[in-house]
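Good day; I would like, with your permission, to put a structural problem before you. A protein sequence and the structure tokens that stand for its backbone fold form the material at issue. The record follows directly beneath this note:
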Amino acid sequence: MSAVPPRLVVGITGASGAVYGVRLLERARALGLETHLVATPAGVLNVHHELGLDRAALEALASRAYAPGEVGACIASGSFATAAMVVAPCSMKSLASIAHGYGDNLLTRAADVSLKERRRLVLMVRETPFNLAHLRNMTAATEMGAIVFPPLPAFYHQPATIDELVDDSVERVLALLGIDAAQPRAWQGL
């Protein structure tokens, strides 16, 4: 019997930074991970504006893709085993819904399932500056077990391109998920 590859749920919301979700899907495919994508309408719009991809091109990057209205999809059930879920990028609207258990679409329902099943949920929140509501929602999500991971670039490895900054953040997320093949840039000291 062959081993089933780990399943990773990827959510893409309307926050700027669609490249993080797209790069995560690309890297997961290269690592042989099974990916399940749900992108909000605003997420698809940002993917188009920021990267020039349409919904079909985005969905082609995943093993399986779902519409946000498919609340009965397998990723909305705790009996569908997954290794983790990453929302990349995570808008403040989606963060608020996740923090308050408001599963009104498949993305927020799948995140709720990740929390209730005590699976890894990584939220790559994208906003600045934060207001008090944002901070409280991040605290609430963290208290429930989510990992708030703003994709803040590291500069100690002297990146020369935006791609290097994006790749390092994605690799750090994969390492956080326990993916052995992840390759974040290590700090080499001074």
User: Anything to note?
Assistant: Residues 162-176 form the longest helix (15 residues).
